[in-house]
Amino acid sequence: MTATAAPETNPAFHLSGEALMGLRHLARRGVTPATRTLAGLPGGIVTKRRGRGSEPDDVRLWSEGDDRRHIDRNATARTGILHVRTHHDERDRAVVLLADFRPSMLFGTRRALRSVAAAEALALLGWRVVGDGGRVGLVVAGADEPTALRPAGGERAMTAVTGALASAHARALAQPAAADPPLDALLTLARSLLPSGGHLVLASALDSPGPDFDRLLTLLAESLSIRLILVSDAFERSRPPGFYPFALPDGRRGTVQSARQAAREPAPARLAADERLADYARRGIAGLRLDVEAGPEAYAPLMERLDAVL
Prior knowledge:
By secondary structure, this protein is of the alpha/beta class. It has helices at residues 17-27, 73-79, 114-131, 154-174, 184-192, 213-220, 234-237, 268-282, 296-308; strands spanning 38-39, 47-48, 55-61, 83-88, 94-100, 135-141, 147-153, 199-204, 225-232, 242-247, 253-258, 286-291. The strands form four sheets. Strands 7-6-5-8-9-12 form a six-stranded mixed β-sheet, with helices on both faces. A two-stranded antiparallel ribbon has the order 1-2. Strand 6 and strand 7 form a beta hairpin. Helix 3 packs antiparallel against helix 4 and helix 3 crosses helix 9 (296-308). It is elongated and about 80 Å long.
């Protein structure tokens, strides 16, 4: 799948701000006030935060078992029926989404480009964050100057984020083929947009991240919460046997052979992705693998899990 072969309206290649805006309904599906108090704790189990929180959330009818201390006097006096006020945690979450649109991300063999999948996942996460009262910012890595938006809250912030993603992606597709610039400087830029204790979520295949990337990422993890969305194309995980032509940004061309793999043998690329995530997890940087072919419906529960630990 090549970026130049598709019409401008093909969603597999071209990001639409309207489509990313539409993901807000998918992102918020099934989210209730009870689930908005999930705590991000280490390990695979998500639990509720203790206590009732400090921020007013909603007023509802009294039900058996409710604490009488939470009775809302105004609503009760107005209706003559007992009402209670619910609360949620006061969390000022500032999250910067870092989208990798460098030339290596403009690749895909099923459903969409890796860059499109990265943007879809980040948009889903962004809608969840602002829906819970958090603030979302953006940094986009490409072959040209990066895009940066400071964290802000509400639908207006996500309108800016989705528009910036679509615009930056269109610029990336229009750029001539080039080598990937390193991601090191983009980490520094993202850090400058966040307060200490903020959250950075990076969506990338991490091809050619730069010689100083791992060291800098580990260093930043001491003051920020960092999460990785490792984007993976099906062809990388399981290549059918055969000969595959390739072309490099510097003009060199050639052919690579993919040998037949035993049916029970795990795909090396899949192992490499999982091992890479495990290595980052040992340094306190948790992450997940995002399969490009799965699509936003499958990404939504993944982003729900990721949101719970931010």
